[in-house]
Amino acid sequence: MATLLLPCDGSASALLAVRHAIAEFRQGDAQRIHLLNVQPPFSHYVNRYTAPQLRADFHRERADEELAEARRMLDAAGVPNLAHFRIGDKARCIAEMARQLHCDRVLIGTARKSAFVRAVEHSLTNQLLESCPVPVEVIGGAPARMIERIGIPAGVGAGLALLLASQA
């Protein structure tokens, strides 16, 4: 039986991975499930002018909010789970927690995007596939929008359209 690490930010894609973990638990393929939420660190400026306890409380509240639906789903299904949160770079924190918790796999949900878009966006999935010490199982979510599937990120496409319009 496997120990799974589920990075979760509360998004629809992340909740797909939670559903997949529930199914694995019911089939007897998973024994232990760890939920992980990674919060981005505050800037140096914010750190300088706010109290450490205030920052810690804020990060904890955000993590609890983002993990709430996943915990509710796991609890409703009778799946034992432990929730963790870290502050820092997402890929680095996930890989470190997988190592520390002796996980057999990382299970991550993601939206379907083209390889070009993933490369341009510096995809978390790609970072994990390259750096994680354990296998990473990717659960594909809903297909990306048409403009993203053909390889042009929406923001870049809109920027190019505005640039071309201003030249006319």
UniProtKB/TrEMBL annotation:
Gene3D superfamilies per UniProt: HUPs
Residue ranges of domain UspA in the record: 3-138
Domain of life: Bacteria
Protein name: Universal stress protein
Organism the protein comes from: Cupriavidus campinensis
